């Protein structure tokens, strides 16, 4: 153990190897309170690909597991330490190595903060779409590892849709380059998209080539309120059926609305549900899209519809959506779940969450990305009460079961990590699990990376 | 061998097992003349997933390799028979099982012809983007196996971008279900995108859940002519820099233009290069996009720019592009190459192809999807001359080397198959090749599926 620590210090410098338990405690877990976490042997912060390779080789030789980690903003415990592991933190590798506006791509290290990349490419009139809620502090490496989503996904897809290629340190310390710098390419298996979303179980991503898009037009915004959950769900279906693809379409349920009204000391005039939509198509196209959305909402029985092209007003309207989690903190701690259901089943999911809330006797507020069916039912509980925590856990699991029963998936964007391993097995079944194990064994035969995360070996 | 044939007949019915060499000859190779092909033991045409499983189990037990095959429109020899194999043809599994307009998805069997799916979903106001040139006879199964592209890719991506989930028969006959019916989902590794583009080397795809889009607006069309290749290349770069994403952007070089002019007995008034662009954004948005493209072309020195919103006229303008391969047949047989380069290097690729054409003393016509840098230099040769064929092969390889040297890839959309195995190795390097072999071995330990295709085991 001491010899491993010596090797790690030789590899990354003594200052980049943390072993003091008080210090390493900050690297033991991410933002998911339900996931197990152990005590790491050490936390290392390499500054280069070569340092990552040296760390991986040293750990492999010592048989010490590695848990790769970004900023720690995850919501599934994927980056939680396992007992006696080395937590490999990539936040010091934070260089934007290249922005190529002519080929609309950027090459970055994994520690770049999502918001910093967005700001840097915006100067070139370009846009990096993936926008997880934690975009002001999460890193690209974590986004890649979890295939992060966000509010943009309804129009622009998730992280994997913006990745052209990767550089990955494998379990034996070899350096794999996947993908390419061109827009298209089918030379070999799509290893890029295999590593994206693999949650640190297959290797350490040390560099990424990302596809950029032209900066969209300034968004126009529409808000619609509904007297019933069913009517809001019907409005989403009508928007989809109309063939409109908004750049944002968020839903808030009754519980979220009430919490935000109390927090912001305002009346949202929204009974059972609120839809927030944007179009970033600009000009007449945006007007056409918002008009179609308005018609869909009115047709589904909206009580009130209001649209604006004004940027500041649009931002104000989104304040309600962004304030939900803060508003819920008045009532206790929150636990955010993450299911994705077919877009036609959103109302069923919200109604089901109301039933589950009543059963466990806790508040469950549903907010979500209505445009792609990705819902975040958020359970509020008293963290000082073991009983409430147990009931929150029960609600968390029941929501996952409900998502599956509605034809959905147990995770739309947060990942499996260490909190949904049993649910992954339920969703993909024994053959799917076997193939996962076969792929893991092929790339990481000694189970070096993030052992026991996602699925047991 | 007789016992395997008996088992195959028992599995799929005697009429669906072809062994007559005259009949199986039609299933020995695809449309790529350079790729090697062997004599199959038998060609089987299963009608259901269960029949595919039975065929796979029988072949696995007998140690007889399986080459999965769609319509045979491929251009890399991926579906070419290996000596003594069973060619497993999926064209009889051609049912569109479901179209769900509310969730914008379709569930299909692999034998559905691309055009038939397009037509079926269009009745619901929906759009299946991938449009390889062979779309009127190629099948979805082949499109999935090769991750096929087409003219749509500049705006809508390639096949993998439209796939939500798959059903795959594995080497031991087990049935794997990957992905989901929801728009988003990150439960487990992205096995869906691992199988898409794996060219029949990892399993047999028996069902696919495909994402659909709203039907776009009727396209507006713009044509621009240039006195030099460099000016046309600069126009493409300016369009990209302007942040416009056309729904189609094709380029034709001097040799293509001359061939088409002779074939259609017309004067295209295009000196060195011609750009064809479309916008399917409709109305003012389309006008804005085409105006920006026009400005980019004029700024780059276009000699003539003409735009039209008229559908029939737009179709006429595209005739020249669609006529290239037919027009080249006057001069001999053609051999289409497929490289993708950074969009800024298109002019360099065309100029390089002119040099290669002069060196080998053959006509090389370059057409391509300029919007994503995916070029198809097409070599014309006399098939009755061994010498010309050898020179065509030399040109084919030199173009691949040129593509790599320009920072591109050796295949943008046709695949590696049995014609570019050495080039895959060159492009991805020894570590990439090793990981490919590890993944292949994990999923197909006995090397049952398409052995020796893409890379040697």
Q: Would you write up a description of this structure?
A:
2 copies of one chain form a homodimer. By secondary structure, chain A is of the alpha+beta class. Chain A has 3 domains: 2-89, Uridine Diphospho-n-acetylenolpyruvylglucosamine Reductase, domain 2 (2-Layer Sandwich); 96-214, Uridine Diphospho-n-acetylenolpyruvylglucosamine Reductase, domain 3 (2-Layer Sandwich); 220-405, Vanillyl-alcohol Oxidase, Chain A, domain 3. The first copy, chain A, is built from 15 helices and 19 strands. The first copy, chain A, has helices at residues 2-12, 21-24, 49-62, 114-122, 140-146, 153-156, 191-195, 229-242, 254-264, 283-299, 311-322, 324-328, 346-360, 386-405, 421-443, and strands spanning 17-18, 42-44, 66-69, 86-89, 96-100, 105-108, 126-127, 163-169, 175-179, 204-211, 213-214, 220-226, 248-253, 273-279, 304-308, 333-336, 339-340, 363-369, 374-381. In chain A, the strands form 4 sheets. In chain A, strands 12, 13, 14, 15, 16, 17, 18 and 19 form an 8-stranded antiparallel beta sheet that branches. A 5-stranded antiparallel beta sheet of chain A has the order 5-6-10-8-9. In chain A, strand 8 and strand 9 form a beta hairpin. In chain A, helix 1 (2-12) runs antiparallel to helix 3 (49-62), helix 8 crosses helix 10 (283-299) and helix 13 (346-360) runs antiparallel to helix 14 (386-405). The longest helix of chain A is centred in the last third of the chain and has 23 residues, at 421-443. The first copy, chain A, is globular. At the A-B interface, strand 9, helix 7, strand 11, helix 8 and helix 10 of A face strand 9, helix 7, strand 11, helix 8 and helix 10 of B. Chains A, B: InterPro entries: FAD-bd_oxidored_4_C, FAD-bd_PCMH, FAD-bd_PCMH-like_sf, FAD-bd_PCMH_sub2, FAD-linked_Oxase-like_C, FAD-linked_OxidoTrans_Type4, Oxid_FAD_bind_N, Vanillyl_alc_oxidase_C-sub2. Chains A, B: Its cofactor is FAD.
């Amino acid at each position: 153990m001491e010899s491993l620590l010596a090797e790690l210090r030789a590899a990354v410098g003594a200052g980049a190897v943390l072993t003091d338990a008080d210090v390493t405690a900050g690297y033991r877990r991410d933002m998911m309170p339900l996931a197990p976490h152990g005590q790491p042997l050490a936390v290392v912060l390499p500054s280069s690909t070569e340092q990552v390779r040296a760390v991986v080789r040293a750990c492999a030789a010592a048989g010490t597991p590695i848990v790769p980690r970004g900023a720690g903003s995850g919501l599934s415990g994927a980056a939680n330490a396992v007992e006696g592991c080395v937590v490999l933190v990539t936040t010091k590798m934070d260089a934007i190595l290249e922005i190529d506006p002519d080929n609309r791509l950027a090459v970055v290290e994994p520690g770049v903060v999502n918001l910093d990349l967005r700001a840097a490419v915006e100067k070139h009139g370009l846009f990096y779409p993936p926008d997880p809620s934690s975009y002001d502090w999460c890193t690209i490496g974590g986004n890649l590892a979890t295939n992060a989503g966000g509010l943009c996904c309804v129009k622009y897809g998730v992280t994997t849709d913006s990745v052209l290629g990767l550089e990955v340190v494998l379990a034996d310390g070899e350096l794999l380059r996947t993908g390419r710098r061109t827009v298209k390419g089918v030379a070999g298996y799509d290893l890029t998209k295999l590593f994206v979303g693999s949650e640190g179980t297959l290797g350490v991503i040390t560099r990424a080539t990302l596809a950029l898009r032209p900066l969209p037009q300034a968004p126009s915004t529409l808000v619609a309120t509904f007297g019933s959950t069913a009517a809001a769900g019907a409005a989403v279906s009508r928007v989809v059926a109309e063939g409109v693809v908004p750049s944002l379409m968020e839903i808030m349920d009754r519980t979220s609305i009430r919490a935000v009204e109390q927090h912001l000391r305002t009346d949202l005039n929204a009974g059972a549900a609120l839809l927030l939509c944007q179009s970033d198509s600009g000009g007449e196209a945006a007007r056409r899209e918002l008009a179609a959305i308005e018609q869909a909402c009115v047709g589904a029985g909206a009580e009130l519809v209001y649209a604006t092209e004004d940027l500041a007003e649009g931002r104000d309207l989104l304040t309600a959506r962004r304030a939900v989690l803060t508003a819920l903190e008045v009532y206790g701690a929150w636990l955010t779940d993450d299911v994705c259901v077919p877009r036609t089943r959103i109302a069923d999911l919200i109604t089901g969450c109301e039933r589950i809330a009543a059963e466990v006797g806790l508040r469950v507020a549903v907010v979500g990305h209505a445009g792609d069916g990705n819902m975040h039912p958020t359970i509020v509980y008293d963290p000082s009460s073991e009983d409430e925590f147990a009931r929150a856990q029960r609600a968390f699991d029941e929501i996952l079961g409900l998502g599956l029963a509605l034809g959905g998936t147990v995770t739309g964007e947060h990942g499996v990590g260490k909190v949904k391993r049993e649910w992954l097995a339920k969703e993909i079944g024994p053959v799917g699990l076997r193939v996962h194990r076969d792929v893991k064994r092929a790339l990481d035969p000694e189970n070096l990376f993030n052992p026991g995360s996602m699925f047991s070996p």
